[in-house]
């Protein structure tokens, strides 16, 4: 079964969507669009596809998330009040203080994510800022085991996880933090020369599906991320590249 990504133009590049219950890692440097990707996956998942969701941020406070999401038309506050969206986490420093107060571990924190998914019967979940878990758990082996338990727990519940992480290219090549656990890896880029910069994505890995092996340019619009058609696709009708009303 496929899960619609919510990213305009991406589904057709991954065989119609992410495999249900998979763990997809979205990597990229600062400013490449990772948080927008995660919010869009969850926001459109709830609003357009009727799939309850859990969103975990290790970077932003709840109010900031509300403001960021509503700018693209995803009403996180309204969805949270309706019970179809659960927001967890907060800035990593405040999460750390709460962990110390409660004498909790990263394993406990990630266990709360699985519990929240179960409670709201979420079909999709997102963790934004996965690499920040390193600040909460210094032992790499314990951290990877906790992530493996998160992946297994969500998969058993039929929940598809998207997690963002700012990792280096050499780390990804070595199947570093989260990469070996992930069923899919999508890398985002924002590169250019002089005054011109372009955004692009590359599907590095996607188990269980045929996927594009090309670099695809995209824009971040007021509707979210929109993947551009390749030159050979121009002129062909292809549902999903352009958001309605955009």
The number of E-state strands comes to 11
In spatial order, strands of the major sheet run 5-4-6-7-3-8-9-10-11
Radius of gyration: 17 Å
Bin the helical content: 25-40%
Q: What's the shape?
A: globular
Tell me what the CATH architecture is: 3-Layer(aba) Sandwich
User: Structural class, please?
Assistant: alpha/beta
* Mean model confidence by pLDDT: 87
End-to-end distance: 29 Å
Low-pLDDT segments, ≥5 res: 172-176
Could you state the CATH homologous superfamily?
Answer: P-loop containing nucleotide triphosphate hydrolases
Number of helices: 7
Largest sheet: 9 strands, mixed
**Helices and strands, in N-to-C order?**
EEEHEHHEHHEHEHEEEE
| CATH structural fold name | Rossmann fold
Highest CATH level, the class: Alpha Beta
Sheet-strand content, in percent, reads 25-35%
Descriptive account of the structure:
With 246 residues, this protein is α/β, with parallel strands linked by helices. The chain has a single domain, classed as P-loop containing nucleotide triphosphate hydrolases (Rossmann fold, 3-Layer(aba) Sandwich). The two termini are 29 Å apart. It has helices at residues 34-47, 62-70, 76-82, 92-102, 106-120, 140-156, 169-173; strands spanning 2-3, 18-19, 23-28, 53-57, 85-89, 124-128, 160-165, 184-193, 196-206, 215-221, 224-227. The chain is 32% helix and 26% strand. It is built from seven helices and eleven strands. The strands form two sheets. A nine-stranded mixed beta sheet has the order 5-4-6-7-3-8-9-10-11, with helices on both faces.
Descriptors:
single chain; 246 residues; alpha/beta; nine-stranded mixed sheet; two-stranded antiparallel sheet; 32% helix
């Amino acid at each position: 079964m496929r899960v619609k990504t919510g990213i305009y133009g991406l589904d057709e590049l991954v065989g119609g969507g992410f495999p249900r219950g998979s763990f997809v890692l979205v990597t990229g440097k600062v400013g490449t669009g990772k948080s927008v990707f995660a919010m869009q996956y969850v926001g459109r998942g709830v609003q357009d596809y009727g799939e309850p969701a859990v969103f975990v941020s290790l970077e932003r406070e709840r109010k900031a998330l509300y403001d960021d999401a509503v700018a693209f038309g995803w009403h996180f506050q309204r969805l949270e009040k309706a019970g179809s969206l659960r927001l967890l986490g907060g800035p990593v420093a405040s999460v750390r203080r709460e962990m110390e107060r409660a004498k909790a571990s990263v394993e406990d924190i990630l266990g709360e994510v699985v519990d929240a998914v179960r409670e709201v019967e979420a079909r999709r979940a997102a963790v934004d800022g996965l690499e920040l878990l390193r600040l909460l758990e210094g032992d790499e082996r314990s951290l990877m085991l906790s992530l493996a338990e998160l992946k297994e727990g969500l998969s058993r519940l039929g929940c598809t996880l998207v997690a963002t992480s700012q990792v280096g290219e050499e780390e990804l090549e070595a199947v570093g933090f989260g990469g070996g656990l992930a069923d899919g890896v999508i890398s985002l880029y924002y590169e250019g020369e002089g005054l011109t910069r372009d955004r692009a994505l590359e599907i590095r890995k996607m188990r269980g599906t045929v996927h594009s092996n090309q670099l695809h340019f995209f824009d971040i619009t007021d509707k979210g991320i929109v993947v551009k058609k390749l030159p050979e696709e121009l002129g062909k009708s292809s549902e999903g590249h352009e958001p309605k009303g955009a």
